Amino acid sequence: MSTPIDELVQSVVPEVVQWRRHIHENPYVGYEEQPTADYVADVLNTMPAPLEIRRLTPNSVVADLRGGAGEGPMYALRADMDALPVQEESGEPFSSRRPGVMHACGHDSHTAMLLGAVKVLCQMRDRIRGTVRFIFQHAEEVIPSGAKQLVSLGVLDGVSMIFGLHVRASLEVGKITSRVHTLCGACNDFDIVIRGAGGHASQPELCIDPVIVSAEVICNLQTVISRRICALKAPVLSITQINGGGGAYNVIPDTVHMRGTLRCLDRDVQARVPGLMEEIIAGVAKAHGAEYELSWLEPNIITFNDDRAYELAVQAAHDVVGDNYQVLENPGFGVEDFSEYQAVVPGCYVMLGTRPSGDGPVAPGHNCRFRVNEDAFPYGVGFHVNVIRRLLID
């Protein structure tokens, strides 16, 4: 049996689809998405209730809806807007018009569904006691994080809790999943430079071969995971690039440059592993008479769902999918900068099922064939709306 909220949600779905397809056709990567932010601001200016719209950065939008039922707390809903440097091959009739850029992670859908929630909640304004803050965020996919920038600019000032969602192509439409506490991992990306002494490959005894040193470093770094960290808390440590030398077959280079990533699900492990890595690298380099540099990019922290916020999110999920809410058994090593908000205020992040129809293989996020099933949009809009209903209306 449908409710008045269900009817309001269904009434905005055609516009949600329209908004999503426009954003999908016109994608912009992190810190270049001002046209998307401008479009969002234009849509917000058409809403059926007054909104206080601000641009804390040129490529983000924040809108406050003040309820008509009196003063109360403020709660935030967030969507990210940036795309990826991927050439789209999804076959969708509304595929990207911009070569080499694609909404391959569903941020177009996140943005459109939050716009849909804005429109529904504007029509419920007279029943809202408090304020809803809608955050349309830039630069989730890149470093430095757009969320971190907005937090530094005061986007959470006055906010009591924050909620968000992410599409999940492997999960069937009509399902929502999440878990309490750790949901997504932390990420520390790093660079390692090994400096030796190059020379002719026929006389390696006259060289300090940074290739050999690098090979030992790569292998020995895995002992940090297998021998220094409890297996129940083990992170993932991957060297993803190794570069050294030029075009000649017979020249040992002076330096080798490696890059990699560390993914952790435990805050203490995230703090401990970098020091253990440096011990290994320093020891191997010293054994060969080489020098090294280890440097770290700005880290992403663990996405951690607060107990109370999680409970509210589960209730809102049941409102829209009933018994099809699923508790996620294990956290994932993927990274989500929603964590930057959760480091300041309690919050909860959930996954929305958007599996494409049909029996073929499902392309994961960040894949050039990634697709989103638009039949999921009522559930995403409904989740946002019911979170606010439970907090500021009931």
Automatic annotation (TrEMBL):
<dbReference type="InterPro" id="IPR017439">
    <property type="entry name" value="Amidohydrolase"/>
</dbReference>
<feature type="binding site">
    <location>
        <position position="366"/>
    </location>
    <ligand>
        <name>Mn(2+)</name>
    </ligand>
</feature>
<dbReference type="Pfam" id="PF01546">
    <property type="entry name" value="Peptidase_M20"/>
</dbReference>
<comment type="similarity">
    <text>Belongs to the peptidase M20 family.</text>
</comment>
<keyword id="KW-0378">Hydrolase</keyword>
<dbReference type="InterPro" id="IPR036264">
    <property type="entry name" value="Bact_exopeptidase_dim_dom"/>
</dbReference>
<protein>
    <submittedName>
        <fullName>Aminoacylase</fullName>
        <ecNumber>3.5.1.14</ecNumber>
    </submittedName>
</protein>
<feature type="domain" description="Peptidase M20 dimerisation">
    <location>
        <begin position="190"/>
        <end position="282"/>
    </location>
</feature>
<feature type="binding site">
    <location>
        <position position="107"/>
    </location>
    <ligand>
        <name>Mn(2+)</name>
    </ligand>
</feature>
<feature type="binding site">
    <location>
        <position position="105"/>
    </location>
    <ligand>
        <name>Mn(2+)</name>
    </ligand>
</feature>
<feature type="binding site">
    <location>
        <position position="166"/>
    </location>
    <ligand>
        <name>Mn(2+)</name>
    </ligand>
</feature>
<dbReference type="Pfam" id="PF07687">
    <property type="entry name" value="M20_dimer"/>
</dbReference>
<dbReference type="GO" id="GO:0004046">
    <property type="term" value="F:aminoacylase activity"/>
</dbReference>
<dbReference type="InterPro" id="IPR002933">
    <property type="entry name" value="Peptidase_M20"/>
</dbReference>
<dbReference type="GO" id="GO:0046872">
    <property type="term" value="F:metal ion binding"/>
</dbReference>
<dbReference type="InterPro" id="IPR011650">
    <property type="entry name" value="Peptidase_M20_dimer"/>
</dbReference>
<keyword id="KW-0479">Metal-binding</keyword>
<feature type="binding site">
    <location>
        <position position="141"/>
    </location>
    <ligand>
        <name>Mn(2+)</name>
    </ligand>
</feature>
<keyword id="KW-0464">Manganese</keyword>
